[in-house]
């Protein structure tokens, strides 16, 4: 079978790490048909818009995209190209797994999956200023919008993910003690859905500030975390920090029809073209894509190969204490897979 995938190399270091990812995927023996498209600054340079219609059409047709990091253009009316893609394809679930790879860190054995609601909350961008005494910017107002359907969809998705991958516990993270309605609704629905999975998945909840503290005190207590948009955005980066940073954590944005898989770090224009970027996060995002399409065995092989290259072979890019180039690191992973 040949998998048809939209490939968006991205900006900055994106083309470099995406090239290594394609190389690694080829080494699995699976067959891919890549439709290369532009987005972000590369698209601005090519066709004058950050999200070309050809790119959107390709994703609509293939339902699957592997995307490098993008730079959001300034002054074009786009708050974020990534946010626009999530809204266009209703990618309601943001998946951010983090697992210990580097030895000798503060924490060992971390294996946490963050499931973040991707379309609601404060990030809907409903904001305005209130004029007082002639000052047009005297008060800034932002509305957090949370729907019952949105809560049910993401929480059930998190529990189903836990069941599918043999996870034992889902922690519902909220701020219902203060935000009685927008966070209270999330918690209420979380408790109701949790009861449906009793005997299969343990369910618990934590206030977000306590969750942030517990993550740095005793991260091994966490398995799957599900939370709202803003909290998930913040906590997912904290979790990445526990395992060595954003260079070692992939991400996926998944809807009912489309899945877009990506490294969660930025485009790092300061090191673009130098051949020193770490492609691990992008390669692990490809492994998530394989899980998504039912090729989980090959996804697991890729994750194991990354671990073996870093830990057993000692081949590392400079951000994780080595001197290997981007292509040398990619070659080493590909060799492990052949």
Give an overview of the whole structure.
This protein is α/β, with parallel strands linked by helices. The protein has 2 domains: 191 residues, Isopropylmalate Dehydrogenase (3-Layer(aba) Sandwich), CATH 3.40.718.10; 132 residues, Isopropylmalate Dehydrogenase, CATH 3.40.718.10. Helices cover 41% and strands 24% of the residues. It contains 11 helices and 12 strands. It has a 10-stranded mixed β-sheet with strand order 2-1-3-12-11-4-5-10-8-9, with helices on both faces. Helix 1 crosses helix 9 and helix 9 packs antiparallel against helix 10. The longest helix has 17 residues. The chain is globular. The protein starts with a strand and ends with a helix. The mean pLDDT is 95.
Please give a handful of descriptors for the protein shown.
338 residues, alpha/beta, Isopropylmalate Dehydrogenase, ten-stranded mixed β-sheet, 11 helices, 41% helix, globular
What order do the helices and strands come in, and which of them pair?
Blueprint: E1 2-8, H1 14-27, E2 31-36, H2 41-47, H3 53-62, E3 64-67, H4 81-88, E4 93-99, E5 111-117, E6 121-132, E7 135-145, H5 148-164, E8 169-174, H6 182-196, E9 202-207, H7 208-217, E10 224-227, H8 229-242, E11 250-254, E12 259-263, H9 280-292, H10 296-312, H11 326-337
Parallel strand pairs: 1-2, 1-3, 3-12, 5-10, 8-9, 8-10
Antiparallel strand pairs: 4-5, 4-11, 6-7, 11-12
Helix pairs in contact: 1-9, 1-11, 5-6, 7-8, 9-10, 10-11
């Amino acid at each position: 079978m040949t998998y048809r995938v939209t490939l968006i190399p991205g900006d900055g270091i994106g083309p470099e790490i995406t090239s290594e990812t394609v190389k690694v995927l080829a080494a699995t023996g699976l067959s891919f048909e890549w439709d290369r498209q532009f987005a972000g600054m590369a698209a601005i340079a090519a066709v004058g818009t950050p999200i070309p219609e050809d790119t959107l059409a390709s994703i609509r047709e293939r339902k699957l995209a592997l995307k490098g990091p993008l730079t959001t253009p300034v002054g074009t009316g786009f708050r974020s190209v990534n946010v626009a893609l999530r809204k266009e394809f209703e990618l309601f679930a943001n998946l951010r797994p983090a697992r210990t790879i580097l030895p000798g860190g503060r924490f060992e054995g971390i294996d946490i999956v963050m499931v973040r609601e991707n379309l609601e909350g404060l990030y809907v961008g409903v904001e305005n200023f209130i004029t007082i005494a002639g000052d047009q910017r005297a008060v800034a107002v932002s509305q957090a919008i949370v729907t019952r359907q949105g809560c049910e969809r993401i929480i059930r998705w998190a529990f189903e993910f836990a069941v599918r991958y043999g996870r034992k516990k889902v922690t519902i993270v909220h701020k219902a003690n203060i935000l009685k309605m927008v966070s209270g609704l999330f918690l209420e629905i979380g408790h109701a859905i949790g009861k449906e999975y009793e005997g299969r998945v343990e369910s618990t909840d934590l206030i977000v500030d306590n969750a942030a503290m517990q993550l740095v005190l005793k991260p091994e207590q966490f398995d799957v975390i599900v939370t709202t948009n803003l909290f998930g955005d913040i906590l997912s980066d904290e979790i990445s920090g526990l395992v060595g940073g954003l260079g070692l954590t992939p991400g996926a944005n998944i809807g009912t029809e489309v899945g877009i898989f990506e490294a969660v770090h930025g485009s790092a224009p300061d090191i673009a073209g130098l051949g020193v970027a770490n492609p691990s996060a992008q390669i692990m995002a490809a492994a998530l894509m394989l899980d998504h399409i039912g090729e989980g065995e090959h996804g697991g092989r890729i994750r194991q190969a990354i671990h073996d290259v870093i830990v057993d072979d000692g081949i590392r890019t400079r951000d994780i204490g080595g001197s290997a180039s981007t292509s040398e690191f990619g070659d080493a992973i590909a060799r492990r897979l052949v």
